[in-house]
Amino acid sequence: MNSVMWPILKREYSSRIRTKGFWIATALFPLLTLGFTMLPRFLAERTKSSPEAIRVVDVNGDFFPVLQGVLDSREESSDEPPIELEPINGRSLAEIQRELNDEAQKGVIQGYLIVDDSGLEESEIVYYARNPSSAITSDSMRAALREAMTKYRLTQLGVSGEAIDAAVKRVGFDVRKATNDPRDQASGISSFFMSIALAMFIYFTLIFYGVHILRGVLEEKSTRIVEIIVSSVRPFELMMGKILGIGAVGLTQIAIWATFAIVLSAPQVGALLSVAPEAMPRISTSALVFFPVYFVLGYFLYATIYAGIGSMFNSDEDAQQMVSFATMLLIIPMMLLMPVIKNPNGGLATGLSLFPFFTPILMYLRITIQTPPAWQIALSIGIMLVTILIMIWLVSKIYRIGILMYGKKPTIPEIVRWLRYT
Amino acid sequence: MEVEFPIEVKNISKRYDKFDAVKDLSFSVRRGTVFGLLGPNGAGKTTTIRMIMNIIVPDSGTISILGKPSTDSASRVVGYLPEERGLYRKMKVLDHLVFLGEIRGLKAKEARKRSGEWLERLSLTQWSGKKVEELSKGMQQKLQFIGCVIHEPEVLILDEPFSGLDPVNARTFKDLFMEMKQKGRTLVLSTHVMEQAEKLCDEIGLINRSKMVLQGSLAEVKSRYSGNRLLLQGEGDVNRLRAIPGVLGVHGDEGVLEVELASDLARADFLRAATVVFNLESVVPHEASLDEIFVEVVGGPVEGLGEEEVA
Q1: Cα distance between residue B257 and residue B237, in whole Å
Q2: What would you report as the CA-atom Rg of chain B, rounded to the nearest whole angstrom?
Q3: Does residue B302 surpass a pLDDT of 50?
């Protein structure tokens, strides 16, 4: 390494590591990530455990006990709204419906089921819901009704209770990965979440450290220290020293997180492995090996972009527009996670993951799901390296001029002109 | 290696799309002297200095520092105090100075030792563990100066070194500059404050609209622009003074009169004639101030083009 770059790198590293902000961020980031992943689930739980009941209008009075039995036997019965029998009390069906509609609108009940003779005969039961789009309720209700209906009919046919239970025993269904390596046969659902989590992690850290670079460059400009430094250090060395220094901060932070993650989760992992090894979410070897590769490549690409943006402007506000443009390059692949997960080796996924600005997130995502052909991995790394070199070359030209530009916000044509200056 | 002219600038030009920032500029600075780069705002001083510092590259022309072309390594033998100067606000004072020493090629240990000495000398020792932002502006300016000289440069380039200084610090700085000069260092300073230039400079170069319009030693330039003026004090009829042959004009009514003579030779004749018609108390040859020369050459206050445009 160039000897002049070293003090720059060292300063960037030590001045950041020593701040309270660094340690707060280091502590807060995992908590926030945990919060972001848990919050939707938590909210879903909260909305699901709505206490309002579903009323059952059972005209004959012999279907309700069967349905009640089915719902009671369910494992996840706590998530279900309770069901109640609506007493007929000599009213007509139309009268009952009118009253129940009112109650549903008032929010007293979630909805009601009508079970009458023709319904039982045709196997058709209608669920009148206050909110018909509440998929959770209607899906689980549908399954319970199907089971109850089967049991009801078998009882009507004179089949014994035990025989019925044996016949309608629920089917277990699990998804595993088709691979000969038994360690990789992780539960499909947990690897799915693991893939998303890793993609999110790359996304967040690239933005996080990118903004650090941006702020650092803006600070040097606004405090006017930059001119003192570039008299001894070439702008290119200043830029690279900064990128490498903050990159080292990033790797330190990730190392801290990884250490804590391993230490804190070791007991649970050990317990889970001894009880149910197949439930353990697994990171494949390739996902582990390629994480640093794509993180570092992505970091260099985006750090360079953010450094360039910082050099062009004099304040956060001025830089905002260009920053959102750079952030957009990271948000787009996040929005494409689902199509890529669904068909990781399809043409769309392959093409998108080879686009260098999307590669760190999308190619890495593909690797965590199903290792793509080696040539694609090699090609994506090659394209990224070339892109990084081009970006460093372009940005260093802008940077050199930009860091000495104070005053008004430059226009795009002006920035293009900087590229031509020698 | 002793070089007679540690800084030699030959025919440098720098053009931006719309205009010439610097055009065909040349000057050299003799060892152990102070060269003043003067001129109105936006004349091209900062661009010239940035080219000397190799921060921007001239389109044409050459610059040599201590006999070598101005390159990265050459800039290490130069101490540079830019016009736009600042510090990392969150860094501690001593750490910051060590950092500045290191980027100028000092080992961390040596940089620490010299920083300590300088802090002591400028009575900032008790601040060395404080953050830069806790210091007053004057103290920060002292730190910037220490950063500029910590590697004991042969050549100092100071761009508007007095801007923003209070009178006490301005004097401290002036003394430090004079001390550097006495040690045989070579100084280039740019300023648009002529009083300071007058006190410090051995030679000056006046830049206006990107060109060097006036250059020479301070004494030479002054005598060139002083012409034949005498300042008189005394009593008598001003009109009779005006009537003396060789007098081009008499200005001022009471107290001090400024008499403009046609040539040097007329001075003795004039004095002889003047004693007859006028009760002279004192006669002093008038010396033009740099300020007057500046205004005369530049032609009154010039609208600054703004250094931002020049960069």
Answers
A1: 12
A2: 24
A3: no
Structure tokens at A376: 């694609």
- Residue ranges of alpha helices (H) inside B4-104 are 45-52, 93-103
DSSP state of B77: G
Instruction: Please give the full DSSP string across A1-61, using - where no structure is assigned.
Output: --TTHHHHHHHHHHHHHTSHHHHHHHHHHHHHHHHHHHHHHHHHHHHHT---EEEEEESSS
Contact residues on chain B for A224, CB-CB shorter than 8 A: 82, 84-86
> Cβ–Cβ of B85/A228 closer than 8 Å?
yes
Instruction: Please state, in angstroms and rounded to a whole number, the distance separating the CA atoms of residues A29 and A212.
Output: 15
In this structure, what token pair is assigned to residue A95? 């009268």
Give the DSSP H or E segment for A257: helix A235-275
CA A77 to each of CA A73, A215, A369, A381, B6: distance values in angstroms, whole numbers, following the listed order? 8, 52, 33, 50, 89
Strand order through the sheet with B155-159: B78-81, B155-159, B186-191, B34-38, B203-208, B211-217
Asked if residue A162 lies in contact with residue A2, where contact means CB atoms within 8 angstroms, the answer is no
Mutation for A interface: B87, B103, B131, B159, most A CBs within 10 A? B103
Residue A188 confidence (pLDDT): 60
In this predicted complex, what is the ipTM?
0.75
Tokens of B176: 């430090």
Provide the chain B residues 34-93 that lie in CB contact (below 8 A) with chain A. Answer: 50, 53, 55-57, 59, 72, 75-76, 78, 80-91
pLDDT tens-place string over residues B66-101: 888 876 555 678 898 888 788 998 899 999 999 999
Question: Burial letters for B100-119: b for 16+ Cβ neighbours within 10 Å, e otherwise?
Answer: bbbbbbbeeeebbebbeebb
Using CA atoms, how far apart are residues B154 and B113, in angstroms rounded to an integer?
A: 20
Question: What tokens appear for B67 in the block?
Answer: 């006999």
**Are residues B69 and B115 in contact, defined by beta-carbon separation less than 8 angstroms?**
no
Query: How many of the other CB atoms lie within 10 Å of CB of B46?
Result: 27
**CA A242 to chain centroid:** 30
In this complex, the residue of A6, A11, A231 whose CB is nearest that of residue B82 is A231
Q: How far apart (Å, rounded) are the C-alpha atoms in residues A10 and A397?
A: 24
- Spell out a b/e string for A288-303, using b for 16 or more CB atoms within 10 Å of the CB, else e: eebbebbbbbbbbbbb
Which of B150, B79, B88, B145 has its CA nearest to residue B117?
B150
Check residues B222 and B26 and name the one with the higher pLDDT: B26
Contact state of A231 with B17 under an 8 Å Cβ cutoff = no
pLDDT tops 60 at residue B301? no
Is 0.80 topped by the overall pTM? no
Which B residues in the span 107-126 are in contact with A, Cβ-Cβ below 8 Å? none
Express each pLDDT in A34-87 by its tens digit: 777 667 666 666 655 556 788 888 888 888 888 888 877 775 545 567 778 888
CA atoms of B177 and B182, how far apart (whole Å) = 9
